[in-house]
Amino acid sequence: MKNITDSFLSLGHWPFAGSFGFNTDILATNLINLGVVIGVLIFFGKGVLADLLDNRKQRILNTIRNSEELRERAIEQLERARARLRKVETEADQFRVNGYSEIEREKLNLINSTYKTLEQLENYKNETIQFEQQRAINQVRQRVFQQALQGALGTLNSCLNNEVHLRTINANIGMFGTMKEITD
């Protein structure tokens, strides 16, 4: 092992002229080495590199195609969504208009119903007033009649004495007797 290591260490000390050896000049050897490596890569790697680039190109094209298909589907979905949105907005406007007209109709119905109810209450009030007036008139008539009857009875009692009373009774009995004879 020591001989091999010594041989590599001593390579840098070989003379340049006339003998075979390694060039240790980094700048000169790098260009040659790069040229050789690039030549070998181009010669042997041209097919592999072309295949890799073709595969990459196909993947990129497939990705673009897939993206285009996804874009077209997204555009179709967007158009359908816009159509649904327009339809829903139209329906919402119809509901709004119908709602407003329904509210107006209900408002008019409520106003008419309230007017009819007020009219009925007014009629009930008027009927109640007329009933109460008639009842008051009847009570007044009844009191007047009672007072007149009491006054008449008082006058009769004060004017009638026993003799006038007996004559009135006899006259009435006579009238009934005559009426009975006529009817028989």
Automatic annotation (TrEMBL):
Coiled-coil positions: 57-98
Major subcellular location class: membrane
Domain of life: Eukaryota
Transmembrane segments: 26-49
Keywords: ATP synthesis, CF(0), Coiled coil, Hydrogen ion transport, Ion transport, Membrane, Plastid, Transmembrane, Transmembrane helix, Transport
Molecular function GO labels: proton transmembrane transporter activity
Its membrane topology: Single-pass membrane protein
InterPro entries: ATP_synth_b/b'su_bac/chlpt
Subcellular location: Membrane
GO biological process: proton motive force-driven ATP synthesis
GO CC annotation: proton-transporting ATP synthase complex
UniProt similarity note: Belongs to the ATPase B chain family.
Function: F(1)F(0) ATP synthase produces ATP from ADP in the presence of a proton or sodium gradient. F-type ATPases consist of two structural domains, F(1) containing the extramembraneous catalytic core and F(0) containing the membrane proton channel, linked together by a central stalk and a peripheral stalk. During catalysis, ATP synthesis in the catalytic domain of F(1) is coupled via a rotary mechanism of the central stalk subunits to proton translocation.
HAMAP family hit by this protein: ATP_synth_b_bprime
Protein name in the entry: ATP synthase CF0 subunit I
